Amino acid sequence: MSTKIYVGNLPYSVTDSTLESNFAEFGGVSSAKVMMDRETGRSKGFGFVEMANVEVAQAAISALHGMSVDGRSIVVNLARPREERSDSGGYSATGYTAGKRSDVGYGTGGYGGGRY
After folding, report:
1. Within the chain, which residues score under 50 in pLDDT?
2. 57 lies in some domain
3. Structure pTM?
4. Nearest of 16, 71, 105 to residue 7 by alpha carbon
């Protein structure tokens, strides 16, 4: 079973291949991905590495956490599961819906800003 690792505080120069090569020395890397900004195409400064098993992942975490890469101390730990997003309104398949706050606006969405 593969184990997913979060790698944070990465320099913007790090690519998927450099991330993979840094972790490959500890064992089998299934995938390595640096998260990129959709608008600018620039790195967001963090990424994820999937390793073959828990033992290999723990060895990589112990060795690489706090290591300096291009003058930045990187953060390496087990990735947490993605949290559920709360519905904050917006456009969906059923149409536009306002946020769930009842204390703002006219009640069911639309225009307005304060309490009336």
Report:
1. none
2. yes
3. 0.71
4. 16
